[in-house]
């Protein structure tokens, strides 16, 4: 780890100001960033901890929407987002207890790891990512591996999840790290079904539109029988081949539909 | 009597309270230096230039060594002097130590070690078994071939011929305590070495060689290891030698421990094997002729690969009589870490080959795999049908597996559950169950005959307390407690009377590694000899008809406390200290011809595992495992059952979740618990019934017990065979599942069996 300064603002405005400094980097729960720093893969001069900002923490429900503060830990989401059971279940199965007690939803979405769980929930739910300057639809937010629509210094204040009629997240875990080898989030709304896949594609989280079309007409696992998934653009690494991931995408989607029906 | 009692591990309280002291816990003097290696970035080639200016300038660095700066070549090999401590200009694997950094802290040394600028002239690397086999890259002038009878004609004449290929991966030891050593310089250039090693005498020998000083100038002490599994038989040499070199050059203490990633990257692992087989059987599935080609990936240096590959050959038969057999073994040299000892020492690889063959025969003939196994078993002492000779000529004269397997199959309802699994599979298209019952026969003794010796040193103090020392090392397996129970039994005193002390080359010299499962056999006997020497002296002095029992010495019917007896002997100038020595009898072995008696006896066991697989993903679970294992007359049943449970789980891990991946540059990509999955407590079977066979060793071992360290590892083979049984339920083709059977590999096997792809 290289040396750096730490700022601990207590308001979003102060945090935004601190992030304006040269080579400043926002710090959420640190579950990705701190190991990255330990490996000396990044060298920010200032870390701006968002942990002291009360305004960006907590879970609230308003009509058909669950709003989760960007600084809310996975553990809190698991315990308090019961109004959206599939989301709470996803949060409760991220990593291990240490990760769930430190890691935040804002940190996960800002990082957009191709094997992380949360991006699939946001994309499948059609969530809105609220920052200190604007609101971004999930469809516009995820832009590839570790790439998002966030500008320099932009902070995730909250995420607004419309609550679907039914939803389920099914994760095939890489057994050692418990990251998603493939994770599929299926959400059924009155106007259609959305399916988001994480862990699999070289392009990061994506919507499987053929499955959405099939399921919107017939929300049952059988509706997917005729579909095939190509392994061509899938991640091929030491944990699994692209073909294996492609195969798992369909299986996990079916499982998610079955669990949600 | 203390032996046979289920006493807890002697350090159990220290373990669970975190107060058991390991090498890294020993307080160091203030001026201690900390060491780290700079590692190569390529797998094969030569060094063109090295610039270590940034390393030397790094904070805390006091000095840096290249090969030319060392006092000698500082060879680390346990066998043929082919492992210079630091690269001599040639690079043999990615991760090979090139330079050595000494700094004022562990972290400073590791940071500095990454700053070396090395330019290489790369050469094509041989990484895989196929690469090395095709290139003819191997250790030794020719493959080792052992034959008995005439295999090829027997196979030609047989009713059925079955052939196939089995690939099995290696395995990282993953001891919880990584490699560590500390050296304190003493008067006149002597060295005191603390090492996390299974082989203190080897550390002593290699440090003395490196510094060109006599062995008497080097004292090695090992209190305990946090796991060894064979990974600390030879792999600790580099650290102890490095510390000694730095201590000799600077006069300061030196300590070195590998970070987990470095430990994975630098040290050797279990040999991965490919086994090609061709067997001929009669209509009952009985083997009439068998040929095996065993290809072992040995890595860049010879290390212990010859005895490992020999032991694989020696376990090609497992529990089965092979009338005509040919075994050809290639020890392949590759540009990877030098594969080394790992629990079973090649035995598991050889045994897995014949177990695969048994299942393959059963499938071909449409028989129950257990029936095929039984028809191939060696004779029991009662049957006498001429099927008792192993391929290497040793007689199997106490074959208990027929009886043991019958008992296990009855206890676990093997036949009923096999039928139930078949019915269940008929009605469940997605999940498939499989069940397998596999036996283990494992030879006990070092195959290098002269290693089968041990020494002990026992002192009785005038207050009646007893201090015990022997050449074995404690790595968590419970050896010290078992040996202490022997001493307590010889003197008839409570176990608390005995103090177990750290293994120390200054107390017992010329010891063998604590390996080959022989720790209790050898050291227990040596301690018994030492105790009996003292006991006989005491008895002779105290009178006639002397008994040692219940904490007392009974002389002509009247008891005096043991402490009082010790005091009386001391005051009468009776020596209360003795050494003991033991060498295993009956051994005679020629590895060149593959004939003789390499083993004093065999340990037996059997496991029945039931599994379920998901044919959509390859996910799998072990539902139930039943084990009966033969530990002879157990010295300590709870410690032995602990070894059986742990051995099974580790064996199952080798064959299922533990997958080592090297990329095409030769870099090991699985080098941490985030990428390499060892079984955890939650991965053990939900139903796990383990018991010991009620018998005793027919050979005269310590209290008629049997060695228990390695044999249960091979009980894990039942899991792979159960998984392939489950895959086999998907179609008619034989499910030749390779290891490790990861979900992806299981899915591929399902697709092959079900869809022919």
From TrEMBL, chain A:
Keyword Ligase among record annotations: no
EC number(s) given by UniProt: 1.2.7.4
PROSITE patterns: FAD_PCMH
Pfam family for this entry, one: FAD_binding_5
A GO molecular function held by the record: FAD binding
Keywords: FAD, Flavoprotein, Oxidoreductase
Domain spans labelled FAD-binding PCMH-type: 1-166
The keyword Phosphoprotein belongs to this UniProt entry's keyword annotation: no
Annotated Gene3D superfamilies: 3.30.465.10, CO dehydrogenase flavoprotein, C-terminal domain, Uridine Diphospho-n-acetylenolpyruvylglucosamine Reductase, domain 2
Protein name per the record: Carbon monoxide dehydrogenase medium chain
Protein species of origin: Pelagimonas varians
Gene this chain is encoded by: coxM_1
UniProtKB/TrEMBL annotation, chain B:
UniProt cofactor(s): FAD; Mo-molybdopterin; [2Fe-2S] cluster; Mo-molybdopterin cytosine dinucleotide
Assigned keywords, A-Z: 2Fe-2S, Iron, Iron-sulfur, Metal-binding, Molybdenum, Oxidoreductase
Aldehyde oxidase/xanthine dehydrogenase a/b hammerhead domain mapped to chain residues: 17-124
InterPro entries, alphabetized: Ald_Oxase/Xan_DH_a/b, Ald_Oxase/Xan_DH_a/b_sf, Ald_Oxase/xanthine_DH-like, AldOxase/xan_DH_MoCoBD1, AldOxase/xan_DH_MoCoBD2, AldOxase/xan_DH_Mopterin-bd_sf, Xanthine_DH_Mopterin-bd_su
Segments crossing the lipid bilayer: none
GO molecular function list: 2 iron, 2 sulfur cluster binding; iron ion binding; molybdenum ion binding; xanthine dehydrogenase activity
Domain of life (superkingdom): Bacteria
Enzyme nomenclature, EC number: 1.17.1.4
Family: Belongs to the xanthine dehydrogenase family.
PANTHER family hit by this protein: ALDEHYDE OXIDASE 1-RELATED, XANTHINE DEHYDROGENASE
Protein name as it appears in the record: Xanthine dehydrogenase molybdenum-binding subunit
């Amino acid at each position: 780890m290289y040396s750096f300064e730490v700022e601990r603002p207590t308001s979003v405005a102060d945090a935004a100001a601190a992030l304006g400094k040269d080579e400043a980097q926002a710090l959420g729960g640190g579950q990705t960033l701190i190991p990255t720093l330990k490996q000396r893969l990044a060298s920010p001069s200032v870390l701006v901890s968002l942990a002291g900002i009360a305004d960006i923490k907590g879970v609230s429900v308003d009509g058909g929407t669950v709003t989760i503060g960007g600084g809310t830990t996975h553990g809190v989401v698991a315990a308090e987002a019961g109004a959206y059971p599939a989301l709470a279940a996803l949060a409760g199965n991220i990593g291990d207890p240490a990760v769930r007690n430190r890691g935040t939803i804002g940190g996960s979405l800002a990082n957009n790891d191709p094997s992380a769980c949360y991006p699939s929930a946001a994309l499948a739910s059609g969530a809105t990512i609220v920052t200190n300057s604007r609101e971004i639809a999930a469809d516009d937010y995820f832009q590839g591996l570790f790439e998002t629509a966030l500008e320099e210094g932009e902070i995730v204040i909250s995420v607004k999840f419309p609550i679907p009629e039914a939803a389920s997240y099914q994760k095939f875990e890489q057994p050692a790290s418990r990251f998603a080898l493939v994770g599929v989030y299926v959400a059924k709304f009155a106007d259609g079904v959305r399916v988001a896949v994480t862990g699999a594609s070289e392009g990061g989280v994506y919507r499987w539109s053929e499955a959405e079309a099939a399921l919107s007409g017939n929300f049952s696992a059988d509706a997917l029988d005729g579909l095939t998934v190509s392994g061509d653009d899938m991640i091929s690494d030491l944990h699994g081949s692209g073909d294996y991931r492609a195969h798992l995408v369909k299986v996990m989607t079916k499982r998610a539909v079955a669990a949600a029906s | 009597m203390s032996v046979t009692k289920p006493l807890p591990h002697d350090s159990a309280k220290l373990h669970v309270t975190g107060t058991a002291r390991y090498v890294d816990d020993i307080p160091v003097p203030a001026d201690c230096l900390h060491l780290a290696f700079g590692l190569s970035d390529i797998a094969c080639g030569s060094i063109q230039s090295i610039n270590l200016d940034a390393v030397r300038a790094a904070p805390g660095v006091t000095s840096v060594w290249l090969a030319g700066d060392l006092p000698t070549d500082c060879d680390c090999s346990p066998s043929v002097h082919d492992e210079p401590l630091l690269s001599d200009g040639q690079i043999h694997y990615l991760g090979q130590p090139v330079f050595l950094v000494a700094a004022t802290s562990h972290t400073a040394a590791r940071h500095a070690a990454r700053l070396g600028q090395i330019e290489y002239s790369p050469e094509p690397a041989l990484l895989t078994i196929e690469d090395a086999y095709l290139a003819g890259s191997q250790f030794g002038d020719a493959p080792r071939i052992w034959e008995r009878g005439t295999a090829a004609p027997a196979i030609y004449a047989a009713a059925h011929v079955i052939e196939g290929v089995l690939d099995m991966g290696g395995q990282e030891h993953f001891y919880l305590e990584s490699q560590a050593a500390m050296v304190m310089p003493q008067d006149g250039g002597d060295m005191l070495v603390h090492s996390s090693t299974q082989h203190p005498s080897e550390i002593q020998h290699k440090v003395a060689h490196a510094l060109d000083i006599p062995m008497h100038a080097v004292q090695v002490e090992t209190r305990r290891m946090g796991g060894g599994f064979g990974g600390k038989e030879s792999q600790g040499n580099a650290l102890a030698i490095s510390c000694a070199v730095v201590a000799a050059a600077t006069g300061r203490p030196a300590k070195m421990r590998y970070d987990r990633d470095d430990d994975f990257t630098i040290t050797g692992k279990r040999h991965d094997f490919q086994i090609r087989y061709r067997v001929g059987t009669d209509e009952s599935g009985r083997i009439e002729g068998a040929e095996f080609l065993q290809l072992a990936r040995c890595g860049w240096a010879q290390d212990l690969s010859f005895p490992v590959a020999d032991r694989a050959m020696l376990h090609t038969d497992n529990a089965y009589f092979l009338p005509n057999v040919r075994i050809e073994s290639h020890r392949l040299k590759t540009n990877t870490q030098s594969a080394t000892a790992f629990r079973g020492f090649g035995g598991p690889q050889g045994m897995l080959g014949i177990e695969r063959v048994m299942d393959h025969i059963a499938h071909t003939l449409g028989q129950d795999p257990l029936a095929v196994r039984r028809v191939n078993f060696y004779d029991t002492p009662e049957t006498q049908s001429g099927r008792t000779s192993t391929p290497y000529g040793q007689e199997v004269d106490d074959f208990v597996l027929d009886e043991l397997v019958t008992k296990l199959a009855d206890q676990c309802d093997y036949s009923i559950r096999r039928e139930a699994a078949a019915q269940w599979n008929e009605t469940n298209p997605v999940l498939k169950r499989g069940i397998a019952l596999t036996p283990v026969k494992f030879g006990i003794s070092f195959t290098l005959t002269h290693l089968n010796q041990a020494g002990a040193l026992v002192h009785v103090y005038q207050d009646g307390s007893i201090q015990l020392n022997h050449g074995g090392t404690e790595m968590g397996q419970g050896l010290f407690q078992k040996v202490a129970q022997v001493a307590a039994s010889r003197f008839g005193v409570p176990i608390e009377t005995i103090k177990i002390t750290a293994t120390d080359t200054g107390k017992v010299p010329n010891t063998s590694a604590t390996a080959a499962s022989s720790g209790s056999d050898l050291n227990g006997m040596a301690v018994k000899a030492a105790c009996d020497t003292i006991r006989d002296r005491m008895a002779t002095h105290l009178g006639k008809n002397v008994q040692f029992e219940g904490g007392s010495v009974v002389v002509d019917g009247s008891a005096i406390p043991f402490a009082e007896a010790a005091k009386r002997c001391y005051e009468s100038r009776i020596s209360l200290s003795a050494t003991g020595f033991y060498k295993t009898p009956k051994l005679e072995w020629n590895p060149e011809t593959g004939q003789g008696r390499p083993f004093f006896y065999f340990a037996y066991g059997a496991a029945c595992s039931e599994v379920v697989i998901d044919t959509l993903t390859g996910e799998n679970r072990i539902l139930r495992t039943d084990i009966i294992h033969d530990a002879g007359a157990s010295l300590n049943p709870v410690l032995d059952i602990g070894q059986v449970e742990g051995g099974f789980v580790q064996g199952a891990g080798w064959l299922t979740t533990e997958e080592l991946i090297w990329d095409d540059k030769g870099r090991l990509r699985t080098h941490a618990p985030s990428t390499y999955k060892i079984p955890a407590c939650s991965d053990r079977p939900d139903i796990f019934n383990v018991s010991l066979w009620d018998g005793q060793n027919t050979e005269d071992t310590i209290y008629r017990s049997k060695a228990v360290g390695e044999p249960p590892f091979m009980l894990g083979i039942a899991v792979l065979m159960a998984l392939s049984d489950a895959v086999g339920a998907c179609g008619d083709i034989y499910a030749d599942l390779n290891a490790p059977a990861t979900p992806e590999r299981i899915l591929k096997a399902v697709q092959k069996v079900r869809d022919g792809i």
